[in-house]
Write a structure and sequence with these properties.
Blueprint: E1 15-19, H1 24-35, E2 39-44, H2 46-50, H3 52-55, E3 66-70, H4 76-86, E4 90-93, H5 100-105, H6 107-128, E5 133-139, H7 161-180, E6 183-189, E7 192-193, H8 202-214, E8 221-223, E9 229-230, E10 233-234, H9 235-246, E11 253-256, E12 262-263, H10 264-274, E13 283-285, H11 303-309, H12 317-341
Parallel strand pairs: 1-2, 1-4, 2-3, 4-5, 5-6, 6-11, 7-10, 8-13
Antiparallel strand pairs: 9-12
Helix pairs in contact: 1-9, 4-6, 6-7, 8-10, 8-12, 10-12
């Protein structure tokens, strides 16, 4: 270097690792982190890399900008190797068997995947990358039938294997924070939806069926408990809350919610109205779709997140559902056009 020359300093690039990057939350979070200049890595099953068309559709548009690592949350060595290799500044543990209804059908795999997977991630960070800040995706299902609204001090009363598995992960994360000094924060997220939501969830089931009935693909929609009430927000805003937690001075646990509840009946009426349909001309109430131990009302009090993190939701429920219906109409119209082109 010539005498008198100054070395130009380049901005420090943070590295983030996301388990569950192919899911709804992971895809939005990856976009947010890329926008903030992060180097983004994701953990996926090897089958996803081998079949990107069907398994990576939520992140297809950002694939050239991220790096994926094949690993299984059921295998500690594979989790350990990825974390040791990446040495992330921030790790967002989002991967889980996340459909509550399925957890009633297969309690064993739900408990094993969610509990062991979280334990493996925590243990691997402790041993291989102790400076990493870790986010654990907890769930409002941990509260079960606790009186509404629920906050960080509310007693947990899970009513499903999924809720139990998330509560176990929550306690594991807190224990690693308190016993080993690991920087770990948990987000107790209430229901959050978007056009990227899986079709097995009731919101996407309703909006996609509204679109399919509108286009003449289907003629009826089958639902169970129409009176169940949930606190529904937009996944993109909830992903932003995750980042805010890991970029706060100290690790802590936060409820993330809108504070408003809506019934499945309201969801149905709003979605079908957005499609220009009368829902009750197409609705079939099916008792077989009612869960064995359903929760009537989940409503979150996110006062702490608003006060400490400065986070607050801005997208209203009706805007969220109308966005989802519009997206599903476009999806099925394009799918029909593609099918017609091949006839």
């Amino acid at each position: 270097m010539p005498i008198g020359a100054r070395m130009l300093s380049s901005p420090v690039v943070k590295t983030a690792l996301i388990t569950g990057i192919t899911g709804q939350d992971g895809s939005y979070l990856a976009e947010i982190l890329l926008g903030k200049g992060y180097a983004v890595h994701g953990v996926v099953r090897r089958v996803a890399i081998e079949d990107p068309e069907h398994r990576l559709w939520r992140i297809r548009h950002i694939l050239p900008r991220i790096r994926l690592h094949a690993a299984s949350l059921e295998s500690f060595p594979s989790v350990f190797q990825v974390i040791q290799r990446v040495q992330p500044d921030e790790l967002y543990h989002l991967a889980a068997q996340s459909f509550v209804g399925y957890s009633f059908e297969d309690e064993f795999s739900t408990l094993a995947t969610n509990t062991n997977g979280t334990h493996f991630v925590l243990a691997a960070v402790k041993e291989a990358s102790p400076g990493t800040r870790l986010y654990f995706a907890a769930s409002s299902e941990m509260f079960g039938d606790a009186p509404a609204p629920q906050n960080e001090q509310t007693r947990f009363q899970p009513r499903s294997a999924y809720g139990i598995s998330k509560l176990t992960g929550y306690h594991l994360a807190r224990n690693y924070r308190e016993a080993y000094g690991l920087w770990a924060a948990s987000g107790i997220l209430y229901n959050h939806e978007s056009p990227r939501r899986g079709f097995e969830f009731v919101t996407r089931k309703v909006t996609s069926m509204a679109a399919r009935i509108k286009l003449g693909i289907e003629s009826e929609i089958r639902l169970g408990n129409l009176d169940a009430r949930r606190d529904w927000g937009h996944a993109r805003e909830y992903a932003m809350a995750m980042w805010s937690m890991l970029n706060h001075e100290t690790p802590d646990d936060y409820v993330v919610a809108t504070g408003e509840t809506h019934s499945v009946r309201e969801l149905l009426e709003l979605a079908f109205d957005a499609a220009g349909l009368d829902p009750y001309r197409h609705l079939v109430v099916d008792a077989d779709l009612v869960r064995p131990a359903d929760i009537h009302t989940l409503q979150g009090d996110s006062s702490k997140a608003r006060r400490v993190l400065g986070w607050s939701p801005t997208i209203a429920f009706d805007a969220l559902i109308r966005e989802m219906v519009a997206s599903d109409l476009e999806y099925y119209e394009q799918a029909g056009a593609r099918a017609g082109a091949h006839d």
